[in-house]
Amino acid sequence: MDNNPNQPDAAIDKVLAALHRAAPPEGMNSRIAARIAAQPSPAASHWHQRLTAPTPTAAWWRGAATGAAFALLAVAAVLLVQHTSRKSPPTANVAVIANAAPSIVAVKATGTPAVPCAHPALLRAVSPSPLPGPEVLRAETGDESAAPSRPAPVLPLTSQERALSRLVRTADPSQLAALSPDTEARLEAYSAAEHARLFTPTPPQLTPVDTPATTVNQETVPAAIPDSSPDTSPEPLPAASPESNPAPSSGSSPSADE
Amino acid sequence: MDRAEPDLTTLVRDYSGLLFRVALSVLRNPAEAEDVVQDAFVRVLQRRSELAVIVELRPWLVRIAWNLALDRRRKIRPDQMDETFASDLVSPGLPADRALAEAAQIKQVFRAIERLPTKERQALLLSAMDELTTAEIATVLGRSESSVRSLLFRARTHLRQRLER
């Protein structure tokens, strides 16, 4: 290389100038034209031709496309209206207390009778009405806490209570009497007296003058029977009236069961 | 308002030489450069509908050829670049000894250009095309005009420093 101080710049310029002077090979343009001719022309799309061609068929297709577009818009508008009409304000104001954890949902009823909700998702939607502040909600919940407690609800009967109730309704008097010791003792005494009256041999008939008539008191008969033996005491006559029967209310005499 | 769509044959006649030189500066292989030019015009044919709305046609075409040349350069090895390319660039009519010395010098400059940063190298190679203004080079590279000037200055400075060593 030469010792010229401008030699690097000259070399650079020489190379750049050589690049600028480079001539394309002979016949390059014809080869490019042949390559372009061999390429399939980029045909427009089928629908583009069908819609833009100046023919009656293309006009019909343009009209059909326009009509379809308007129909789609109409259907979309109808669907939108139906969708917005379904979003009527819910019958309950739902407010969510954001500061509480877990979140508390306070439902303020409007007084209308409760009906099954056809769209439960609407209940989850927040009402557009302004929500009460946390202070208001705290005050409301505080009042509820300070209110007097109500009696506990009636609990269902236990199994023993249910069995007792069934027994009172369906059992016979002797079983019912077993529930009370006094009544049971009186019933046993009455039964013994009846047994003694029916199966003890009767004494010889006395004249009506010798045998004073005695009246049997309903209350004294069962109590006097245990102390009297069949041999020593005169046989008491049962009362003719039905009131003399000590059975509670069944109407059947205890002797009938024996 | 849409302009009249330019004829593709006219485009080939007017711009094929420029596109060939742009591709040649990148590939340094005339056959590869010609393939790039053909591919560029095929690409133009495929996007023929856009021709009417293209404002600056020359930078648009150069950019197509430039990108195609960069893509092709990634597929070929540097040693596949034509070794005789430097000899072809020697000025005709020189004595044999001077021609050899000049070819060696051109190879040295090309090696120095290859070691430049990418942006500086690209700006320098595009600046070799006298048809392209700085604004058009900026359009092709996607940078501002001042950035292109800065790149050109730094490219020449770096290149000079490397050739002086």
Low-confidence stretches of chain A: 91-107, 211-258
Q: Treating each run of at least 4 consecutive H or I residues as one helix, how many helices of chain A?
A: 11
Label the structural class of chain B: mainly alpha
Distance between the termini of chain B: 56 Å
Task: Offer a quick outline of the entry.
With 258 residues, chain A is mostly helical. Chain A has eleven helices and two strands. Chain A has a domain at 173-203 and 216-239.
Question: Describe it for me?
Answer:
The complex is a heterodimer of chains A (258) and B (165). With 258 residues, chain A is mainly alpha-helical. Chain A contains eleven helices and two strands; from the N terminus they run ααααββααααααα. Chain A has a domain at 173-203 and 216-239. Chain A has helices spanning 7-21, 28-38, 46-52, 56-86, 120-124, 134-146, 159-170, 173-177, 181-199, 220-224, 254-257; strands at 93-97, 104-108. A two-stranded antiparallel ribbon of chain A has the order 1-2. The termini of chain A are far apart. Chain B is built from eight helices and no strands. With 165 residues, chain B is mainly α. The model of chain B has no long low-confidence stretch (mean pLDDT 85). In chain B, α1 (8-27) packs across α2, α1 crosses α3 (57-75) and α3 packs across α7.
Topology:
The complex is a heterodimer of chains A (258) and B (165).
Chain A: H1 7-21, H2 28-38, H3 46-52, H4 56-86, E1 93-97, E2 104-108, H5 120-124, H6 134-146, H7 159-170, H8 173-177, H9 181-199, H10 220-224, H11 254-257
Antiparallel strand pairs in A: 1-2
Chain B: H1 8-27, H2 30-46, H3 57-75, H4 85-88, H5 96-114, H6 118-127, H7 134-141, H8 145-164
Helix pairs in contact in B: 1-2, 1-3, 2-3, 3-7, 5-8, 6-7, 6-8, 7-8
Provide key terms for this protein.
heterodimer, A: 258 residues, mainly alpha, two-stranded antiparallel ribbon, 2 strands, elongated, disordered C terminus, B: 165 residues, Rna Polymerase Sigma Factor, Chain: A, Arc Repressor Mutant, subunit A, 8 helices, 71% helix, 0% strand
